[in-house]
């Protein structure tokens, strides 16, 4: 009988979110603009409340100033900051929009509007605001260091829209002004790669690695480029250079995980073992190590790493499915059913089908036939050409004496896999139970003709023949079944 397991390893995305100095969410400018008018005690009080993080008082104070003078730029600025800190992003967006109306030539209004739009998930509008901030800032002669947050904010907003070519253009502009900025170079290399300009990314990656050879993201991007160029050996050498340089155990584990991806056989397992030793919380490595053992039919050895992965990501469908498969191989149906049910709830497509198969099979093995039928019926809806799904559905229906349903399911299984003797033997048994003795003889005769050593088929054929009043032929069938070691036939020969 088929064993079920997930067939795909998890690939660890060592992208910009995994780099050693992650790209921060753009933050608003915090310094209120200088007043260009006589001191306003109410404004000063509101600004003091803002600096002391008395946000409700600050909001009321700034609103009072605005009510008296709607054109007061510092009051709108302060109110926007206060609302942003309170989490009222829509209110903050409105205030920063007012800044761009009151003073469309000022950098800080456009920048803070971009930050707020980014937080609201309005990527297209955020990229427009950041682009305007960059344009104004460059025209005003702001230093590249001052404009760095706007450069990165613009790139993030464009990348969030999957506009990698435009992001690369923006970052190329930034890199000319800040040539040694690691984050800008890294995002530029990634954007170039994603926009199909892989070879142009290489110089930026080597610039990063010349300053920080152990940079995981830069190494991974470089390795992937070389692999895509069919230079796998060179990719492995670059990976080994970074492995020699990196000191942090977690970063080393990430690089070993990547090495496992490029390796095969014992070398892959060795790299994964080293990775989980260095960072037991790297669940992707734990999962892939467990899966490697599971696919080698080493279910008991797979349990440890799979359970370690589960402890980190208890709702990751692939981990749940792998555990269900391991318990299925170990013939522990209660555990298999539990994890398969969880996996089925969270999975889609082929993984959901596999989870339902394990759940249905395990429920059948435990005698929970209604649960088995429900899971297996869903499995056949997802994959109507699975002979195994129809087989187990038929077995579950047979167990509750729904012989008509069992026959229909088993006939469907046989139509999908005419050479599966197990399907045919069970179909013959269903025909017998339904009183369709001639059909039972026909199917079971085909089985024993193809496999003369199928003891159960001979036994069931004997019953079909007796039911057709062919007693001598029935006894010969049971005698053959007994000779093949099927003891239930003995009582029928007395």
How would you characterize the overall build of this protein?
- The structure is a single chain.
- The chain is mainly α.
- Helices cover 73% and strands 0% of the residues.
- Helix 1 runs parallel beside helix 3, helix 6 runs antiparallel to helix 7 and helix 16 runs antiparallel to helix 17.
- The radius of gyration is 34 Å and the shape is elongated.
- The protein starts with 40 loop residues before the first helix and ends in an 11-residue tail after the last helix.
Question: Keywords for this structure?
Answer:
single chain, 494 residues, mainly alpha, elongated
Structural class: mainly alpha
User: How many helices does DSSP assign?
Assistant: 26
Give the N-terminus to C-terminus distance in angstroms: 34 Å
Low-pLDDT ranges:
14-23
Mean pLDDT: 93
Number of distinct beta strands: 0
* Helix content, binned percent: over 70%
Largest sheet: none
Rg over alpha carbons: 34 Å
Following the backbone from N to C, one meets helices and strands in this order, namely: HHHHHHHHHHHHHHHHHHHHHHHHHH
Strand content: under 5%
Summarize the structure.
The chain has 494 residues and is mainly α.
Topology:
Blueprint: H1 41-51, H2 55-68, H3 73-86, H4 89-102, H5 107-119, H6 123-139, H7 144-160, H8 164-177, H9 182-194, H10 198-211, H11 216-228, H12 232-245, H13 249-262, H14 265-278, H15 283-295, H16 299-312, H17 317-329, H18 333-346, H19 349-365, H20 369-382, H21 387-399, H22 403-416, H23 421-433, H24 437-450, H25 455-467, H26 471-483
């Amino acid at each position: 009988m088929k064993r079920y397991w997930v067939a795909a390893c998890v690939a660890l995305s060592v992208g910009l979110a995994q780099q050693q100095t992650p790209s921060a969410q753009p933050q608003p400018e915090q310094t209120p603009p200088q007043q260009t008018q006589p001191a306003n005690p109410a404004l000063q009080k509101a600004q003091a409340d803002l600096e002391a993080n008395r946000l409700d008082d600050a909001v009321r104070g700034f609103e009072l100033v605005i009510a008296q003078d709607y054109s007061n730029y510092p009051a709108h600025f302060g109110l926007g900051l206060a609302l942003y800190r309170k989490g009222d992003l829509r209110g903050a967006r409105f205030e920063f929009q007012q800044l761009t109306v009151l003073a469309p030539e000022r950098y800080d209004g456009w920048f803070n509007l971009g930050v707020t739009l980014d937080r609201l998930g309005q990527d297209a509008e955020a990229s427009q605001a950041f682009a305007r901030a960059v344009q104004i800032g460059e025209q005003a002669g702001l230093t590249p260091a001052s404009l760095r947050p706007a450069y990165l904010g613009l790139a993030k907003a464009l990348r969030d829209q999957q506009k990698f070519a435009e992001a690369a253009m923006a970052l190329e502009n930034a890199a000319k002004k800040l040539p040694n900025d690691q984050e800008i170079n890294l995002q530029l290399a990634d954007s170039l790669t994603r926009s199909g300009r892989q070879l142009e990314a290489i110089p930026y990656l080597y610039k990063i690695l010349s300053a920080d050879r152990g940079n995981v993201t830069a190494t991974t991007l470089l390795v992937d480029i070389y692999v895509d160029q069919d230079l796998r050996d060179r990719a492995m050498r670059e990976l080994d250079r970074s492995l020699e340089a990196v000191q942090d155990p977690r970063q080393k584990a990430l690089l070993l995980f990547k090495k496992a991806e490029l390796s095969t056989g014992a070398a892959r397992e060795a790299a994964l073992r080293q990775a989980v030793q260095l960072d037991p919380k790297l669940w992707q490595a734990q999962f892939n190590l467990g899966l490697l053992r599971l696919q080698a039919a080493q279910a008991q050895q797979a349990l440890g790493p799979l359970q370690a992965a589960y402890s980190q990501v208890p709702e990751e469908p692939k981990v749940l499915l792998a555990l269900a498969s391991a318990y299925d191989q170990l013939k522990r149906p209660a555990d298999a059913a539990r994890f398969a049910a969880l996996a089925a709830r969270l999975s889609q497509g082929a993984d959901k089908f596999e989870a339902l198969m394990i759940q249905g099979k395990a429920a059948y093995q435990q005698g929970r036939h209604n649960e088995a039928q429900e899971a297996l019926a869903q499995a056949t809806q997802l994959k109507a050409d699975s002979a195994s799904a129809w087989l187990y559905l038929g077995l579950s229906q047979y167990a509750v004496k729904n012989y008509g349903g069992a026959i229909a399911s088993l006939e469907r299984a046989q139509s999908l896999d005419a050479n599966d003797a197990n399907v045919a033997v069970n179909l013959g048994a269903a025909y017998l139970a339904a009183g369709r003795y001639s059909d039972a003889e026909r199917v079971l005769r085909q089985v024993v003709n193809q496999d003369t050593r199928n003891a159960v088929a001979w036994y069931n054929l004997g019953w079909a023949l007796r039911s057709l009043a062919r007693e001598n032929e029935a006894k010969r069938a049971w005698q053959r079944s007994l000779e093949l070691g099927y003891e239930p036939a003995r009582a029928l020969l007395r």
